Amino acid sequence: MRYGISQGAHAIATDAGSTDSGAAYLALGMSKNNRGAVKRDLAILMKAGAEARIPLIVGTSGQAGGDKNVDWTLDIVLEIARELAIEPRIAVLYSEQDKAVLKGKNAAGKIRPLPPLGALEDSTIDACDHIVAVMGPEPYVAALQGGADIILGGRTTDTAVIACYALMKGAPQGASWHAAKIAECGAQCSVERGGAGVLISIGEDGFEAEPLNTSFRCSPQSVSAHMLYENSDPFRLTEPGGVLNVTASVYEQISPRVVKVTGSVWEPMPYTMKLEGAGRGRYQTTMLVGIQDPEVLHRIDEFHDKMLAALYERTRRTIGAAAGDFHISLRMYGWNAVSGDKPPPGTPPPREVGVLFVATADTQEMATQIAKACNPYFFHYPINMDEELPSYGFAFSPADIERGAVYEFKLNHVIETEDPMELVRTRWVDLKQAEAA
Prior knowledge:
Layout: H1 2-6, E1 12-17, H2 24-28, H3 35-52, E2 56-63, H4 67-84, E3 89-94, H5 99-107, E4 111-113, H6 122-126, E5 130-133, H7 138-145, E6 150-153, H8 158-168, H9 173-183, E7 198-203, E8 206-211, H10 220-225, E9 236-239, E10 242-245, E11 250-253, E12 259-262, E13 265-268, E14 272-291, H11 294-298, H12 300-318, E15 327-333, E16 353-361, H13 364-380, E17 393-394, E18 401-409, E19 413-416, E20 425-430, H14 431-436
Parallel strand pairs: 1-2, 2-6, 3-6
Antiparallel strand pairs: 3-20, 4-19, 5-14, 7-8, 8-12, 9-10, 10-13, 11-12, 14-16, 14-17, 14-18, 14-19, 15-16
């Protein structure tokens, strides 16, 4: 941070969230990150910003960017401000959506699906606990123009958070958006891995990227490669209001640590914002065993299929119709748990596998009852029925672990809007005025 400030940085910007860790963080309005770690990082950024008198811009606050996530982050910021004895003017940008408004937009044909989903039904909107619209840079630009020292944004594209200051200053859109894309993960655009952030300098003819860690360096390959990160097309990146096109971009090593990029183009498009909605589904209970039985490991696909069929049969026989529309899965870790695909013939057997049992039902009680009914088979099911019953290595006792509700993303749609501010609410928290009052 000290190096970046010494080089004349005009703003500190960070993307603080993602959908990578699943729907629970939006549905529950919580962060996956430890509060102490977030406070530590924000304290460093806030202190640097206050001393340099430059704005701190945070996007997708609290992991998922819902209103609860943003307010959680705001509480931390206010606590740090008291400890640092600073009085920033804070803009809080909320992008959580009212369901009635979305239903009206949907009826007017303003919401369309992204693959592989179909047309949006009102029942899907109702099934979401929280829905956010992914913001572009415009609300951040308005907050900067309003004199914000700190901006805490709800759900936002990674790039918009970083591009907003340059766009406000009138920098070229192509260079601003491309620089933001390269900088979204900090020093990940450098040759080395790890470390901290990156300094981007945007001018009339392009931008430069330089790691803040002075022992790191950028190369044309490391910078250009980041266009592949979370992007299916390495040359085009869709954002609210346009597409970044880097087909003609040129990456040049201008010093041992710095790469300059020119030729990036911004192609304006009708303004859309992605909708992300998450809600609670059914309930799960799990059990886990480890297996080293060589006979099982040589016939692992057969074992999986036989045991799964036996577990379904036992559940239907012991619980019956009361189990409802239940589901059981066996995930063979060390074999094919991640993909679910059967390995090709001739794949050598593993030394051991961990078998995760997952029962899904309409209630937590029923998911647990299914697990309890399946417990004897799960721990003792033989590959050869005429042999003594084995005992597999169970990980915990009691064996059944109630996982709680399953949270799912239910929306993968975009909403058309002519006004980028229409679906955003801005709240101002001015500590200096509050102190004066």
